[in-house]
Amino acid sequence: MATPLAQVAEVDPVWSRIRREAEDALAEEPLLGGMIHSSVLHHAGFERALAYRIAMKLASPEMGQQILREIVDEALADDPGIARSARTDIVAIEDRDPACHTFLQPLLYFKGFQAVQSYRIAHWLWNRRRRNMAYFFQMRVSEVFGVDIHPAARIGQGIMIDHAHSIVIGETAVVGDNVSMLHSVTLGGTGKEDGDRHPKIGDGVLIGAGAKVLGNIRVGRCSRIAAGSVVLHDVPPCTTVAGVPARVVGEAGCPQPAVSMDHVLPGA
């Protein structure tokens, strides 16, 4: 007969691995026992652990942890895709980030992962016309993580935001699946215009540190935006752009730049 842990692994290998890694971390560093138990080992499943972590990080004197926990639990129960995307994000981060060696690390320590999952709850609230609560989540994510994602933005799964300091993603921005970006990236507008005014980032795009992508433009799938670039016009698929303003400097260099995380420019 399969053990309970083996049965969990059959239906949720991500959660099973997180629990094993939490037990290993506890044995290695007993002083983290309180955090590890409350954040992981105390919970029966990934959704419960994720809800606890989001609520605990975003709680403040203005909104207590219990109320936030109930909101997150409601969102996760209503839309299973939120937790499915979170699992996909964890796998993507462990695969692409050389500083990440466990599935446990994003859940406990990585503010890029935590900010994106908190945004997913804000987006759920926004779509259910609970706009003021969605704005509250946006505010707390910005205050706690230094990441400002408008709750109306649309973001896919398999997302890695490395370091995640000073990320800005505007209201009408769209980010596809399997996108990687580094710190200080802005997906913003170009002025005071209303309506659809933010970038549309295709699947598999790699956005380097400090890059600014501005306006209602399209960045084609599997392209690369070099660090520090300012992108003001459409980017063809499978190309590399660099500079201020950015221009095409070559092909993307590989089929999946967001996965390979290769930032070296052609001829460099």
Structure, described:
- This protein is α/β, with parallel strands linked by helices.
- The chain is built from ten helices and 15 strands.
- A six-stranded mixed beta sheet has the order 3-6-9-12-14-15.
- β14 and β15 form a beta hairpin.
- α1 packs across α2.
- The longest helix is centred in the N-terminal third of the chain and has 17 residues.
- It is globular and about 50 Å long.
- The N terminus is likely disordered.
- This is Serine acetyltransferase.
- It catalyses: L-serine + acetyl-CoA = O-acetyl-L-serine + CoA.
- It is an enzyme of class 2 (transferase).
Secondary structure topology:
Blueprint: H1 4-11, H2 13-28, H3 33-41, H4 46-58, H5 65-78, H6 80-96, H7 104-109, H8 111-127, H9 131-145, E1 147-149, E2 154-155, E3 160-161, E4 167-169, E5 174-175, E6 180-181, E7 186-188, E8 200-201, E9 206-207, E10 212-214, E11 218-219, E12 224-225, E13 230-231, E14 239-242, E15 247-251, H10 257-260
Parallel strand pairs: 1-4, 2-5, 3-6, 4-7, 5-8, 6-9, 7-10, 8-11, 9-12, 10-13, 12-14
Antiparallel strand pairs: 14-15
Helix pairs in contact: 1-2, 2-3, 4-5, 5-6, 6-8, 8-9
Task: Label this structure with key terms.
serine acetyltransferase, domain 1, 268 residues, globular, six-stranded mixed β-sheet, disordered N terminus, five-stranded parallel β-sheet
